[in-house]
Amino acid sequence: MLARFAIDDGNHRPKIVPDDDASVAAGAARYAAECSCGRWPRTVYDNPHQAITSHLAHITSRLGPSKGPAWLPVGLRIFLLTAAMMLIWAASYATGHVIARSTGHSGLVAAFHLLGIGLAFGLMVAVRRYIAPTRD
């Protein structure tokens, strides 16, 4: 079930319209389809159902399950990231308390608290592709 999990990046919106030139040439209604990502060439189909089915196949080839390390499940990777973020924040917060006690400036605790939060979320942004990457 998890193998079918897809992360939609929002860049694959279909555009399916009647194609007048192909319709006149074939003598029947034909539909042109293209994708907003720009990687799927404009293609002409006999009916809209074929165009939608083809677009779904294109999306499936572009989106898919995580390509992270197979030996490490996604849930465990998220848990490890969360633990690392908490460790970074706690270390920064504790450092702020130690420095504030030694210098007598209580405002340093808040500054180190914010620094810890910034570093933790910076780590999250830096490793996001290793946690749940998508195909391109």
What form results from the Cα inertia axes? rod-shaped
**End-to-end distance, in Å?**
22 Å
**Poorly predicted ranges:** 1-7
**Class derived from helix and strand content:** mainly alpha
The number of helical segments is: 5
Question: Helicity level, as a percent range?
Answer: 55-70%
Relative strand content:
5-15%
What is the overall pLDDT average? 78
- Give the total of beta strands: 3
Largest sheet: 3 strands, antiparallel
If you compute it from the alpha carbons, what radius of gyration comes out, rounded to the nearest whole angstrom? 25 Å
Give an overview in words.
The chain is mainly alpha-helical and about 140 residues long. It is built from 5 helices and 3 strands; from the N terminus they run E-H-E-E-H-H-H-H. Strands 1-2-3 form a 3-stranded antiparallel sheet. Helix 3 runs antiparallel to helix 4. The protein starts with 13 loop residues before the first strand and ends in a 5-residue tail after the last helix. The N terminus is likely disordered.
